[in-house]
């Protein structure tokens, strides 16, 4: 019988993590949050941070010959300042893959080179319904006609640069976390902070039940998944099984379900390990 999950504590951890910005390339805040949260709860699991910022730790098992690993990532989609425009607003480039229409009107935090943080909004350059035709307002959104309006008095590139904002500064989207009365959680970046939270919850359940894994189990929290190499390093050479905890695509022609665990058979790059998949 599986041990009981402490859902309240798991959700509390998740909400704290969701509210900690971590666009890919700027994840230190979230990784420190995770490291401290694990240290507070799991005395037998020391999570160490690599120079590149990923976290790993090993939960001792009854056996040591076939170590296993669980991995999830805490980096999220975001944006970066590509150009400071003459009107003082910011042209941005994507961090990770997202649709421009999904961020129209979104509140953001700009992490300036100066060390300050500024609020802003992602808007189309044709946002005014009174000044632009329907054709202009309905143009396909891309980096050429979307910009960040900064919540600061700036009307020129020089004034924006005086704020300490530079090309390359990271921009984080508002997560807008809501925990509903029916138990549903509405938020950006559940991919894959919900995955990190499920690992936290599973470890907590094992600890509270006084159980020990059959094999040494590596806990691996990566911070570069959104750019394609999140779990590319940080595992022992004799690792036997690796399971990635991440979101599952829920769409037509997918055998997936938002109310259940999905075991992924393949992605665009090819199939996953057949033996482990069938074992699961």
Based on secondary structure, the structural category is alpha+beta
CATH architecture of the largest domain: 3-Layer(aba) Sandwich
Order of strands across the main sheet: 5-4-9-6-7-8
Q: Write down the overall mean pLDDT.
A: 94
Indicate the overall shape.
Answer: elongated
Sketch the topology as an H/E string, one letter per element: HHEEEEEEEHEHEEEHEEEEH
Uncertain segments are none
List the helices and strands and how they pair.
Elements lengths: L6 H12 L9 H14 L6 E2 L5 E5 L3 E11 L4 E7 L5 E6 L11 E5 L5 E8 L9 H4 L8 E5 L6 H6 L7 E4 L4 E2 L5 E2 L3 H19 L6 E8 L18 E4 L21 E2 L2 E2 L2 H6 L1
Parallel strand pairs: 3-12, 3-13
Antiparallel strand pairs: 1-2, 2-12, 4-5, 4-9, 6-7, 6-9, 7-8, 10-11, 14-15
Structure overview:
By secondary structure, the chain is of the alpha+beta class. The protein has two domains: 7-74 and 189-247, Aminopeptidase, CATH 3.40.630; 78-173, Elongation Factor Tu (Ef-tu), domain 3 (Beta Barrel), CATH 2.40.30.40. The chain has helices at 7-18, 28-41, 134-137, 157-162, 190-208, 274-279, and strands at residues 48-49, 55-59, 63-73, 78-84, 90-95, 107-111, 117-124, 146-150, 170-173, 178-179, 185-186, 215-222, 241-244, 266-267, 270-271. The strands form four sheets. A six-stranded antiparallel sheet has the order 5-4-9-6-7-8. The protein has a five-stranded mixed sheet with strand order 1-2-12-3-13. Strands 10-11 form a two-stranded antiparallel sheet. The longest helix has 19 residues, at 190-208. The protein is elongated and about 65 Å long. It starts with 6 loop residues before the first helix and ends with a helix. The mean pLDDT is 94.
């Amino acid at each position: 019988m599986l041990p009981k999950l402490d859902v309240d504590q798991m959700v509390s951890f998740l909400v704290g993590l969701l509210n900690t910005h971590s666009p890919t390339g700027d994840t230190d805040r979230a990784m420190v949050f995770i490291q401290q949260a694990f240290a507070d709860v799991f005395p037998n699991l020391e999570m160490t941070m690599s120079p590149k910022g990923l976290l790993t730790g090993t939960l001792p098992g009854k056996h040591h010959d076939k170590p296993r690993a669980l991995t999830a990532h805490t980096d999220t989609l975001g944006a970066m300042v590509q150009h400071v425009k003459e009107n003082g607003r910011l042209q941005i480039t994507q961090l990770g893959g997202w649709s421009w229409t999904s961020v129209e009107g979104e509140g953001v935090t700009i992490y300036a080179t100066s060390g300050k943080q500024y609020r802003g909004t992602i808007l189309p350059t044709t946002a005014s319904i009174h000044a632009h035709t329907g054709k202009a307002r309905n143009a396909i959104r891309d980096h050429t006609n979307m910009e960040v309006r900064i919540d600061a008095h700036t009307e020129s590139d020089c004034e924006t640069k005086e704020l300490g904002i530079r090309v390359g500064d990271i921009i984080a989207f508002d997560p807008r976390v809501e925990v509903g009365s029916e138990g549903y959680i509405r938020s950006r970046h559940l991919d894959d902070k919900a995955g990190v939270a499920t690992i936290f919850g599973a470890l907590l359940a094992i600890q509270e039940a006084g159980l020990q894994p059959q094999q040494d189990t590596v806990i691996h929290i990566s911070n570069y998944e959104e750019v394609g190499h999140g779990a590319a390093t940080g595992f022992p050479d004799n690792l036997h099984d690796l399971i990635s905890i991440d979101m599952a695509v829920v769409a037509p022609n997918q055998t997936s379900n938002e109310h259940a665990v999905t075991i992924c058979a393949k992605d665009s790059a090819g199939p996953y390990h057949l033996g482990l998949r069938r074992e699961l």
